[in-house]
């Protein structure tokens, strides 16, 4: 009997499981083995008496089971408290894995610039939005995520307020990283511009440019709403943003804005107020923006160019009509046997990008003329407009189309390089000088003869 204990002092035997693991035994006989001890040595080993009788009692058997469990737990050095601790630790790990899936999903959508929410996010909706649908995809092969998103609704952490909170935390971490890099390299330049958002609220965008770890970095700090559009309000917003990011404004060595008077004004402009506080912050009007302004001014003061680009825009508007547009694409497949090319709308703010509009017309001029002729011969309600456009597409237009394709191709290359984060001033100056020489060469007859032959 492994449960048997003997007391020399009492000259009696006891049951260890019953002494420690029973609250109350049903029979007085069994209580003897728990409290007073068994001393009837004559009947101790008799059948259905003594030790055998107690060994077969239900209370004793239950206490033995409890005793065995206790010994197992003690051998494995576990307890109820430690088991609860292990369970809690497992829950913590699962929660962290689940939260990691949420963060990765939000980060991916943010990097891609994709919408997070859907119009209808109820569980019976066919499309609940990018975020919830992405979480469902992850749940299809991740048991932890599946367990959580099918669990209690108050513990799913999928509400849009939690999405926004996580995004703000990630944004804060990015700004801290930018701040640490700027502090390490010390000096930086600032680029700022204001624009309206979809709600018509004026927003100021701020970018820092600095040299870190052997590379030129350009980092976007964010948008900040403007209370006023005067120079002092704009400067205070810039200063506030830098202070929020714990970046010392006194380490700014250059400032770059567009040519608006409120930004570049030499008396009360932002750049002037900035230089009063930070004298070494040299102001430079964005070179790329200046290039666009020069080109726009030239085109406005040249009647031939103005007439040409007006027709380019009119062709885009005409061909963009639904029925005509479909026919235009079909004719390209039939005549040119190429992937259809879309005509491009003229962009007034980025004049050098007109190269895309000119290239599209140059590559499809044959199809455009065929389309217009077909419309003229048909009884289409647009045939009069088509006839007018055909008359305007004369030799002069075709010649200018080739001329501006050639001209804008060179300018577009300079335009792109001046926007390159890794652009250096030496190469920029070489490109500008090369472009100036190219423009001077256009005054000679040779380039024009080449265009004429083309």
From TrEMBL:
Residues 33-269 form the DUF4371 domain. PANTHER family: OS05G0311600 PROTEIN, PTHR45749. This is Zinc finger MYM-type protein 1. It comes from Schizaphis graminum.
